[in-house]
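Q: Give me a protein?
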Amino acid sequence: MVVLVRIGLLGASLVIWEIGARGLNPLLYVPPSTVGPALVSVVTLESFPRLPDHLWLTIKEILIAYGLAVAIGLGLGFSLGLWKTLGKVYGPILSALYAVPSVVWYPSLMLFFGLDATSKIAFGFLLGFFPIVLTVLAGIKQVDRHLIAVAQSMGARPVALFVKVMIPAMASTLVSGLRAGLALTVVGVIVGEVLGSRAGLGFLLNHAYGLLQTPEYVALVVVAAVIVLAVDSLAALFERRAKRWSE
């Protein structure tokens, strides 16, 4: 039933889009009947022959940025959560920095790292890092302190304490934070490429938009949406498994 409702809403949206776009400027508003052929042209590499290279660059940037966000976010979150004094000092600072609109950091990153992939990785890392580290801090507060005390009394080292005690106890919360961090990392990389880049999916989006290749631009948006939905679906699968494991 839910699937049928979704299909109905999608079909109604496409019909409204088709009817509305036909009476507007074709350079700025394109109906779905025009986007379809443009999407075929994009997928078959007719419009953008180097599309695979651009996509692979974007995927590499996402993987590197997310890997850094996870590694540093988990490490810093664990350190601030386990040592309460550090957490009280730096926790509010991280929360305050997270509240700042992330896009204001990008000009500085672009000036520092240039237009190459490094600035996109840095921006993706910045967006993905904060939800991960703050989720770890929130998850550690949920862990029963008696479990930590018992593990420490039995000689558990910090790494073993984190892996064998704290992660299982806060698995559900942690995976939700990792999923949010992944989504924001993808957004950060693509937005960084749109704002200033020489290659990547965001660069192609900006290029098509600047040349008023509106059908190809919308087709590339569809490609970007498919990538984001695929990544989020994979993350949702891991989240469901983690929740079942922690129950």
Notes: The radius of gyration is 22 Å. The chain is about 85% helix and 0% strand. The mean pLDDT is 80. The chain has one domain: 49-246.
